[in-house]
Write a structure and sequence with these properties.
312 residues; alpha+beta; MutS, DNA mismatch repair protein, domain I; Trna Endonuclease, Chain: A, domain 1; 5-stranded mixed sheet; flat; TSEN34_N; tRNA_intron_Endo_cat-like_sf; tRNA_endonuc-like_dom_sf
Length: 312
Amino acid sequence: MASPSVAEPFPVFLAGGRYTLYDVNAVSHARRAHNITGVLIGGLPQAPQQNVFLGIPLELMPEEARLLVEKGVAYIVDDAAVHKHAFIDHNLSKEEKEKFLRSLKKQGSDATRIQTKSADDRKIKALKKIASKNAAVAAKLEKERADAAVAGETVAGDDEESLFGSAPSAPSVAPSEASVQSSSASTIMKITPTTSHPPLLSSESSSPLPLPQVPASYPLFKHLHSEGYFMAPGIRFGCRYTAYPGDPLRFHSHFLCDGMDWDQEFDLLTLVGGGRLGTGVKKGFLVGGTEDKEKVDGEEDVRAFCIEWAGM
């Protein structure tokens, strides 16, 4: 099935100091086209009391949001200000509200139809399986009766008690869709939209918000991303980022990354601890930053060094 198209630039919403994506199509597009994974932070309605599997919205690191803006594929939107301007300062007309409600009802009807068809298909498949099994049992019992009659033996009749009772009769006609009664057909699903558009039509403002503030490790993040790596938060390994050679759903990370300023002082134990931890989890410990020198056109100004602990 073809992936839904997402118009660029798409909005990244700033809410409470966090950069988020609410549209599932924008989430998949950012991952597929721009190697941006983010972290899902929303609960699942069907499994609300667990945090192993989460859903939208997708929270982006400030580095990810800034990178998308600098590439020109996204823009920052003040979520609260946009909603206040659209829904309070300029209240929706009655026609717009009714149109929005009709669209939600249509989505609910489509979802109900798909779920009902899926349930009916499962029921028909189960009934056909039972009918086939009953036919096989009936044929086996009939064969046993015929063999016993030829041998002159008697077989327990209907008036005698039997462990299995009477032989099940196989339906002559396989169940059809018309014969399956669905109990959920009359109930239309209620849709809770994850985005506010429509009716809120977000567009790039003439006075865009400032770029997200990023740490000193951003040049290293941008450098590795430009080399094709997927970058994810590295808090589970005590570092700034983890770098994956492909989609994290398919690959293990190769590097634990920490970015620094070129003249930043650091403790040697940081390198020892990072190198030993990286080697212990079969990854390299990578540090890097922007080299403090005059940049030549076409020359990469970010340098990275990988440390491995060879004594383990």
